[in-house]
Design a protein that fits this description.
Blueprint lengths: L4 H23 L2 H7 L8 H15 L3 H12 L2 H5 L2 H6 L4 H7 L3 H32 L7 H10 L2 H11 L1 H7 L1 H20 L6 H22 L3 H28 L7
Helix pairs in contact: 1-8, 1-9, 3-13, 4-8, 4-13, 8-9, 8-10, 8-11, 8-12, 9-14, 10-14, 11-13, 12-13
Amino acid sequence: MQVNPDMENNQLYQSVIEGYRNLIKERYQYDLLIKQYDVPKTFTEDKFNKLEHYFLNYIYPSIDKRKELDDAFESLDGHIKNPKYLLSVLVDSFGILFKYGTSLPKILRTGIKALHSFRNASQFEEELVQEAVRSGLKTPLDTADIRALVGGLSRPKVNKFIDESLALFETLHDRRLVTQVIDIVDNIIIKMKKKSHIYPREELRGLELGREIIVIGNRLFDQLEPREQQLLFELVVRIERDALDDMFNQASRKPHSPGL
């Protein structure tokens, strides 16, 4: 029986997504983290479970939730590159314009950059799928396959992905800024709902989901003391960069046998 290439690539895509999600689960296992890092005693297993849950539900979601997020954020791609459109929604919002003044465009750009974390993750996974096709890998893929795929990408490209993905945590870490971002996005959503005949439903849904990602992340940081917030940010950066270094080092030490 001949295999449909589109079906085969779709299975590969799903396998890459689940494989990378499994890497995240491995990466944030509490028992391993407290052995590898100087984790404060106040960082309980429950707090790390919530962090892992945040990654797996909002940055690297399952296939079921992925389509909704993909469709919603695709409608925002153009505005991520050109935020003037979203600013124009607030043109007659004198309260918000007076409140933030000339800082408004900068705050909005920061918020949009944070929202792009999910799109960065999706693009990264697509790169892994392309690498899997080039390597001749077949489903199902295990975490060793995913590590080999990441190690097969160019280091600058993966570094760029890590930097852009951490933009969300940089925003969440800035407690004043994240409050401002939520306030501005709330006002844009209200304006869009009032003029639903002008603004497409997909764009509104994209902003609503983006707001949810920031709000849930904000709650995660709200549970911590200011010093803990700084430590959590630094720890996430270290964990992500160390995981990247480990995958590249493994790839350089031994060749991976595709499909085995």
